[in-house]
């Protein structure tokens, strides 16, 4: 059984732990380098990307995490986690750092304020079965992607809709929160990525 870490500095950690365990993985909360060294893959949860960026730096995790991702460790970021994986952020804070694990520009809070949070049924490439009920909470969207980054879902399922899910090899990110809806297919997809690595 693979061990998947959940970055546990801030955000909705417990929901990812539950979804990953239901999907057949062992989990480990990651707050320090020694824990990062023990996992086969990592989830970066939703929360607040500016705070997560600060905490990654103050916990000394920013560079070790970048190095693990560069060496091929599978990683999945949701919402704030998507922002942390980006190569650049629009509407972020000036001191906000991101890992550059995916060549993409992300716009923070792109769908509006907390009251503009919403849900919709999304067609996600690579997921079999029915559309995925996606929950967007003060979510970012992806403004543009570089070569090699595959768009796997767009808001409204429209060809010109905002990009809300992407993947490049072992790195995946979604604007929405699959850990809250009770549908584990995206976590199962990620567990499969880690098992296949
Ligand atoms: N708006 C948050 C941020 O900028 C992300 C929200 C979320 O993760 N649900 O980090």
Structure characteristics:
3-stranded mixed beta sheet, 7-stranded mixed beta sheet, 197 residues, binds glutamine, alpha/beta
Ordered list of secondary-structure elements with their pairings:
Elements: E1 3-7, H1 13-22, E2 26-30, H2 33-36, E3 41-44, H3 49-58, H4 62-70, E4 75-78, H5 80-85, E5 88-90, E6 104-107, E7 118-122, E8 132-136, E9 141-145, E10 150-154, E11 163-168, E12 171-174, H6 185-196
Parallel strand pairs: 1-2, 1-3, 3-4, 4-12, 5-6
Antiparallel strand pairs: 6-9, 7-8, 10-11, 11-12
Function: Catalyzes the hydrolysis of glutamine to glutamate and ammonia as part of the biosynthesis of pyridoxal 5'-phosphate. The resulting ammonia molecule is channeled to the active site of PdxS.
Pfam family, one: SNO
Active site: 79 (nucleophile), 177 (charge relay system), 179 (charge relay system)
